[in-house]
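Quick one - inputs below.
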Amino acid sequence: MTPSALRRSDFLLRFLNAPAILLVIAFSIAPIVYVFYLSFQDLRIGMGASGFAGLDNYRFVLEDASVIKAFSNTFYFAGLSVLLATLIGLGIALLLHSDIPGAGWLVSAVVLPWAIPEIVNALMWQWIYNPTYGALNGILYSLGLIAEYRAWLSSPLSAMHAVIFAYAWKLVPFAVIILYAGLTAIPTEYYEAAEIDGAGDFAQFRYITLPLLAPPLGVVVLFCMVWSMRAFDIVYLLTRGGPGDGTMVLSYFVFGKAFEFGDVGAGAAVACLLALMTFALTALYMRALRNSAGTR
Amino acid sequence: MRAARLSLGKIVALWSLALISLLYLLAPPGWMLISSFSPATELHSRPPHWVPHRPTVEHYETLFQTRGGDARALQQNPQVRAFPRSFVNSLIIATGTTLICVIFGAISAYSLSRFVKRDRQRWILLGLLTTRMIPVVSVLIPIYFALQRLGVLNTLSALIIVYSGLLLPFVIWILESYYRDFPIDLEEAASIDGCSPLRTFVSIVLPLSTNGLFAAAAFVFISVWSDFIVGLTLTSSEKAWPISVALAQALNPITEPNWGLLNAAGLVAAVIPAILAFIFRGAVMRGMLSGAIKG
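Output:
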């Protein structure tokens, strides 16, 4: 029983760690450092310009109206997607938890949106929103809610909300699974006691379910926020950031700036800001997690 | 137990809500499925035929360029020609990445959980999680330039290496937590019997951790298969297009695309991850709960 014998690796096993370490450094760590370096360079493909630019890229980025617009679009897109996915997810999780007969069917259906690749999800909604043959137009037209077919992706405001609705659909499974697990973790005794005290359904939800569901709700909001701030596929396929810059979000902006316009320095600066925001969100969450663990 | 307290009225109300939820979750992919079996004329009527009067498999035949396919449809949507090839590309890329990630991820996760000091371990895990949170688009610019300099843009092997580097942090993170819960007694016994750590790992730990390894493999495969932005940035021709890029290219034409054909293509692209997610749904849910699988 010498655990110390297990504390030592041998040469061969240590050597076999090299590929993973090298790959992680090469493609996950070095690029972060290098993109940070690039954000201080004046690097434009085809312009021959290069050299140290100091804070010029950041100054340009923070003064440029299109970048400001991309920031506000990203926050609006992410905020509303998260809100929608969380509310729908909470509703479905509560349904699953209510033990209605036949809820098992719902569980199997819930995983489906998660399994569908994001680009297929985008294609699917592009078809649903189609201005001449789309199902959305077809349904609303049959119900008499619209007099003629509409191009949902052609005005900035309706395009933004159409993209949000499509993206939130894919986030719902994650919200349901996390929140459902949170609900099952609440001891039934609490509800039984409340019942005896004469608390109604709503009071039970408001004073037992909601407070005890706060930590899983935090997880859902954080992760969905982090994912929606980097959403790319859905914008690329549905609107390409348009019409105008109506749905231009940061990740698509970075892609366009660096790979389509060749302004690598400015693209790298926005990429760094985007990474920084994600990082700040995660750090905030870790801190909240540590605090709640400390008070327990 | 709680069901006993539900009144009939409540059950009916909850059922209708469940039905609406079911419709919300299933109707969009359901419509994709129906559209892929509908002839163009039925999709083009106003409103479209919700159930095709004359269902057809011609879109699938056109897609895979088998007999019965519509040669004219293929001519009008030349991008679709790349579809079978991109399907094979994605299979190769996803399989290669899965092998690399699971083999080397397991070795590193095991080493991390057994041979690294506690406080140092915590920092490494935090670092791995952080790299996972950083948006891919932020690291793609340097990766693009590195591959360009090496002259390996638009190759399958480069994609496999890049995906492996991007996904390994998460694989190590998830497998480390798996090995941490792994009973250490067996390894101690083996070590007393004179097994080297590597021998212990290969002949005792690995065979007993197939559950965790399969779950990690399914996760990697689905992630690579579903990725779009990495493939879009690092490939330039159908030679190396993964399936997601081929799909996006097929939607590109200025003329109205052939929607039956595109829906069939989308469905084929979704089938493999859907089957994997169904088989490994327990692992998928546990993975989500453990904190960070992409939603």
